[in-house]
Amino acid sequence: MRIAVDVMGGDYGPGEVISGALSWLQESAGSIFLVGRSEEIEAALSGQDYDADRLQVINTTEVIAMDESPAIAIRRKKDASIVVATGLVKQGQADAVLSCGSTGAQMAAALFILGRMEGIERPPIVGGIPNLRGTQSLLIDVGANVDCRPTQLVQFGALGSAYASAVQAIANPRVGLLNNGAEETKGNAAAVEAYGLLKQQPKINFIGNVEGRDLFSGDCDVIVCDGFTGNIVLKAMEGLVLFLAQQTMREIGHLPSIYQAVDYRQVGGAPLLGVKGVSIVCHGSSKSQAIQSGMRIALQCVASRIVEQQEQALGALI
Amino acid sequence: MQEFIELARKILAEQLDLNPQDIALETNLEDLDADSIDVVEMVMALEDTYDVEFPEEGLENLSTFGALVTALYEHLEKVKNG
User: Catalytic site residues of B?
Assistant: First the structure.
């Protein structure tokens, strides 16, 4: 297992990302490529204890900033860390790429370098939401595509369904559309049109609209929304958990174990779906522990062959 | 040039799931809900067809379909003519 880590993204700089990558290196038998400015990487590695045979530094000279147009930047900056790291997966030198830099740039790199699966216009990010049945419902998209056409929402439904059957072993996953009401006519124009399109898909088990309060019921295996909505939902959840954790600490002096399972700082990352390679998107605010968790998710994705499994399941759906 | 424009129009229409007639030279790309990924994908498809590499400089500043295809065509002509 070889993971290409783009160390240049993230709010806390290369040191934090490298620290997480080294922790993963210690617990696993895999190897890592640290991709970014070599002088910064060498500085962060200095004095650290690691197996040098399983670590390779790849020097890059460019970085894609958060405010750049992702697609144009991917073409213009051929030596950007996310471009080079994704290229390692394409060339078969790495099994997965992980980044906490610009999500748009990572999505564009995955799309242009790894390539998309047939029938998929844009790769979404899938996030897991704990539910009352003790499993995880999938929220898709949690941030890769802020504006989505109705047809793309249908594709997210197909991808989520394929992922749930392939990775979670759920037979005939129930797919819902996140909306502000249960009725077919509820929502904005894109949601109403997406509802009609999803209803017509014979191979997607569409159960209708899902309201925000029902996200955690477990009545739905795959919840579809655009990346703008999904990202707000995800971060609102994270904020609510932090708020409740602080209030709980004040009131009873300790935190029940459930908080660990829903603490985003420990979750790490989530895969981009619909592309021909494993690309793990991490929070920009990821610290060492989250990076380590993200690398575990990369390992799970590679071990469960999510790319091949999605392609197989998608072939039956689209 | 007309052939080039028609091919670009066809590619973009397919990407955006639109009728090619919906894309006029003066049509604003934003009005088509075309983002930078759509534009770059169209450019890449044209690169494959014409076996040329288009520069990305200035692409994000071209607001209409006509301005975009004209800029690409001018580059193609420049390459062809050495």
Answer: 35
